[in-house]
Every structure is written in C-alpha cells, then in structure tokens.
Design goal:
alpha+beta, five-stranded antiparallel sheet
Length: 291
C-alpha cells in the first residue's frame, strides 16, 4: 500500500498559482471557432453526458453546483437516438467520455401492430440499453408482458439486430421497486449493438395535434377519447394526453388504446394532445364538434 501511495505521489505534477492562473486565461481567451480549442475544453472540463429521447445534458461542473447544458436533439437526422450514438463514437468524442447507463422504458402493453417505421424506432431506441424497464406493468398480465418482450425481440430481428432481451427486462410495478431493484438499474450499463438503418423523415410519419380550450364535460371527453381510438379515419392514434377540468379541479389525462387514467393535478391549461401516425385533423375535429 505504501508503495502505491508513493507511486501516486510521484505522478503528481506540481503547479504554481501563477501557472494555474495562466492556464485559466488560456481557456478564457480561446477562439470558439477553433476546433482544437473546443476539443481542449471538452477534454479538460467534461464530466458526463446524459442522453434522453429528445435532448441530452452536458455536465461540466464536477460538484453539480451548476445546471447542465440542455441540448435538444433537433439537428440529428430523424431525431433518432441511434444517430446520436454514431456521433458519440466518432473521433474525437470517443476519447472524451465513458458510456454510462442506457435505460429504455417500454410500455408493458406495447401495441404490436406497428408500422415498419415505428417498429424500427422501437428497435433502435432499445438496442443499446443495458436494461429495459416496463411501464404500466401493474396493468399488464404476465402473458402480456411476455408478449411485449417477444415483440421487442421480433422488432430487433426484423431490423437486422442480434440483440435479444430476457432477464434484462424489469417487469415490476414501479411503486414496488426495492433498493436492490434501483441499484440494478443504476448499474445496468449499456450494450453495443448494430442494426440496419432506416432513413425517413420522422415528421412525415409521426405528429402531435393540439386541441386547446374545448371545454368538454368529463363524461363526453371520455367518450370522444374512445371514439378517436376506434375511428380508423383519424389515423393511427397511439396516445391521447392533456389536461381538463371536472368542475372541482384539474385532471391530467393519459390514454392509450387499452387504458385511460385521470389524475388530479394542481394547476394546468385545458389542452388535449393527440399523438400518432398520419393523423387526420379534420376527422379528429369532427369528433370534438359532435357535442
């Protein structure tokens, strides 16, 4: 142990206050248009990068005393996570960071009649995950969760990916997660997986329509939600979310084809958001007007 301590001390590079101040001036006065200068900033100050579906956080402060830089994923083709992984594996970024945890959240009652584009996104956004966590598992039977995992693996296979999920899927109700479960998620890491890229403009396939201040009575709103999912002329609706009022307070709406929840919320604006593929606004509008 003493020898290791002495070796560590020998590796320390002594630096004076003046030298340290001079170094800080170099970083402060650098040219932001100089790629080598920018590379030196990342190499010296980058702590970690947290990746999400639609944005990523870049942490520069090791003490966490300042908020990270929040960067939306808008300039990457299709906004796909796989494109982001490709960029991070390019030089010199691959020398500046160590991949941490990649956690994919999948609906336990995942719809299984997806378009090729939707199935591709399902595969590409889970392929690198160290763990898949099923949401709404309290609403799904064990057979339904098995079916979801099988469909996920089928989507991976259809897109030329060798990755398969099994024991690395967390199926428990989130309210029942133990410290051991959370520790397993926190240590899940990530996987390297390749698949065949599908090039398409995500906005040509997926869209969100907003309907503001419709003021539907709550019973009628529930009827409209069910009607929209059943009406094929409205497009392929995947989720309906938003906020409404029952006269006594605000409620948060979250509906899929097989379930609908309404939870109290302190404050909101009345808005309903319809999310899906190839949505037909006129057909959806017709249901709002049938009151």
């Amino acid at each position: 142990m003493n020898a290791q301590i002495e070796n560590a001390r020998a590796e320390l590079v002594p630096i004076t206050r003046d030298n340290f101040v001079s170094l800080l001036h170099i970083y402060r006065d650098g040219d932001i248009n100089d790629s080598k200068y920018l590379a030196s900033l990342f190499e010296t100050f980058l702590v970690r990068v947290d990746l999400y579906d639609d944005h990523f956080l870049i942490w520069f402060n090791p003490l966490g005393q300042k908020p990270p830089a929040d960067i939306p994923i808008t300039s990457i083709e299709n906004g796909d996570v796989d494109e982001f992984f490709d960029i991070l594996h390019d030089e010199p970024l691959d020398k500046w960071y160590r991949m941490g945890n990649v956690i994919a959240i999948v609906d336990a009652k995942q719809e299984q009649q997806l378009s090729p584009q939707s199935a591709y996104l399902l595969a590409s956004e889970t392929a690198n995950a160290g763990m898949v966590v099923l949401s709404r598992s309290q609403l799904a039977t064990p057979a339904e969760m098995d079916s979801t995992v099988n469909y996920l693996n089928h989507a991976l296979e259809q897109n030329g990916c060798a990755r398969r999920f099994g024991a690395d899927v967390l199926r428990k109700n989130w309210e029942d997660l133990t410290p051991q479960d959370l520790a397993a998620v926190a240590a899940c890491g990530s996987k390297q997986a390749s698949y065949e890229k599908m090039h398409f403009d995500q906005h040509d396939v997926f869209s969100s329509l907003y309907f503001i201040d419709r003021h539907l009575p709550l019973p009628r709103l529930k009827e409209v939600v069910n009607e929209l999912f059943a009406d094929a002329s409205c497009g392929r609706i995947m989720r309906i979310k938003g906020f409404t009022s029952d006269g006594n307070g605000w409620l948060e709406l979250n509906a899929s084809r097989d379930a609908m929840t309404l939870k109290p919320i302190a404050k909101a604006q009345e808005v309903i958001i319809v999310i899906g593929e190839q949505l037909n606004r006129a057909a959806i509008e017709a249901h709002w007007k049938e009151v």
